[in-house]
Amino acid sequence: MGFERRVTAVTVCKKGEPIFSDYATRVEIVDEAAGEFVEVSQAGREGGGKIAIASNEWPALRDAIDELIAACRDQE
Predict the structure, then answer these.
(1) Mean pLDDT score, 42-57
(2) DSSP letters along the chain, please?
(3) What does the pLDDT read at residue 42?
(4) Which of 47, 57, 71, 72 pairs with 5 at a CA distance of 20 to 30 A?
(5) Residue 24 CA, distance from chain mean position
(6) How far is CA 29 from CA 18, 35, 46, 50, 51, in A?
(7) φ, ψ at 39 (rounded to 5°)
(8) What is the torsional sign of CA 6, 10, 15, 16?
């Protein structure tokens, strides 16, 4: 039995900002035993998990979401 390498999370933030920045957005594949899905969060922001997306941030964020959606494994 072998191992595989999977990218399951991507952090999108302004260049030079730390990954814990209030404006860092995390996109990750999550599985709660009913199949994989993508979750988007900004842990540093107030508002109960709401995220704010600036228009200049959207292309990088969209690419991260598209990449991880494509990597989700369908539940069979």
Answers:
(1) 72
(2) --------EEEE--TT--TTSTT-EEEEEEESSS-EEEEEE-TTSSSTT-----TTTHHHHHHHHHHHHHHPPPP-
(3) 84
(4) 57
(5) 10
(6) 21, 10, 22, 18, 17
(7) -120, 135
(8) negative
Q: The whole model's pTM is what?
A: 0.72
Sign of the CA dihedral running 60, 40, 45, 52:
positive
Choose among 59, 53, 25, 52: nearest CA to 39: 25
Q: What is the per-residue pLDDT for 55?
A: 79
Contact between residue 55 and residue 38 where contact means Cβ atoms under 8 Å apart: no
